[in-house]
């Protein structure tokens, strides 16, 4: 069964053009999955005493039409597969007419927080959800390839590094997945007209860590790599630009 809640695009969700920002869409999706799990009794407060936590590994989000302030939206989600310690979950945004304006796929790993290793999804957790057929959308590989820096078609910049502050952290004590996206967007020129977002998470950043960004620009995409001083990659974000029609 699909889980949904209603929202409106607030002033705080939108950019200078009154368009809902991509980080705000990700936040709405993340909230939806949390509400879903809590309402089923298998959310954060059920998992925490067992030292279990869901960690996102991958996002792929399609933008069919960007919502505007103060549009009314329905945010929805459902899982479509559990396998071992991995869960797959779709998300969607519907406009007032019930039409899709965004679809998303996500891959999550259940972690044993005390021992920092993957944990098999308990039967009670799996049994709480009704699995649905996955959405009709693109399902790209989870690994994101960086643009070939040796070609003249790639423009590369190295903006100023950023130190992780308390406001970047969530209740798990590490940088929230949506914060990586906000950090990456801070190095882009406003909000580019995008048709797809892919985000691959590789390592966790904590309070005081310093993130060193590398931004790659090509004719049809921006790619942002966030890593530490030793080159370990935290997150790679790929934003595919919408193709213009003459």
Which characteristics define this entry?
single chain, alpha+beta, Thiol Ester Dehydrase, Chain A, twelve-stranded antiparallel β-sheet, 4 helices, 12 strands
Indicate the low-confidence ranges by residue numbers. none
- CATH architecture annotation name of the largest domain: Roll
Q: CATH H-level name of the largest domain... which superfamily? A: Hotdog Thioesterase
CATH class annotation of the largest domain = Alpha Beta
The count of helical stretches stands at 4
Shape: globular
Number of strands: 12
Q: What is the makeup of the main sheet? A: 12 strands, antiparallel
Number of domains: 2
Described by its quaternary structure, the protein is: single chain
Order of helices and strands: EHHEEEEEHEEHEEEE
- Structural class, by secondary structure, is alpha+beta
How far apart the termini lie comes to 42 Å
Q: Give the radius of gyration.
A: 18 Å
CATH topology of the largest domain: Thiol Ester Dehydrase, Chain A
Mean pLDDT: 95
- How big a fraction of the residues is strand? 35-45%
């Amino acid at each position: 069964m699909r889980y949904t809640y209603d929202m409106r695009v607030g002033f705080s969700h939108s950019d200078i053009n009154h368009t809902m920002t991509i980080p705000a869409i990700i936040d709405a999706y993340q909230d939806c999955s949390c509400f879903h799990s809590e309402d089923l009794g298998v959310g954060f407060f059920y998992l925490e005493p067992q030292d279990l936590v869901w960690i996102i590994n991958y996002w792929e989000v399609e933008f069919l039409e960007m919502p505007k302030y103060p549009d009314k939206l329905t945010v929805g989600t459902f899982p479509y597969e559990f396998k071992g310690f991995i869960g797959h979950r779709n998300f969607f945004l519907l406009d007032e007419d019930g039409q899709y304006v965004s679809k998303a796929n996500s891959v999550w790993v259940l972690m044993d927080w005390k021992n920092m290793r993957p944990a098999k999804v308990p039967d009670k957790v799996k049994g709480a959800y009704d699995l649905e057929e996955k959405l009709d959308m693109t399902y790209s590989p989870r690994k994101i390839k960086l643009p070939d820096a040796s070609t003249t078609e790639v423009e590369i910049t190295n903006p100023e590094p950023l130190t992780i502050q308390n406001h970047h952290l969530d209740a798990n004590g590490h940088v929230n997945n949506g914060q990586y996206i906000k950090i990456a967007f801070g190095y882009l020129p406003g909000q580019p007209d995008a048709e797809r977002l892919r985000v691959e998470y590789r390592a966790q950043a904590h309070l005081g860590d310093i993130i060193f960004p590398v931004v790659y620009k090509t004719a049809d995409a921006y790619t942002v790599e966030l890593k530490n001083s030793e080159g370990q990659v935290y997150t790679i974000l790929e934003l595919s630009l919408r193709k213009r029609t003459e």
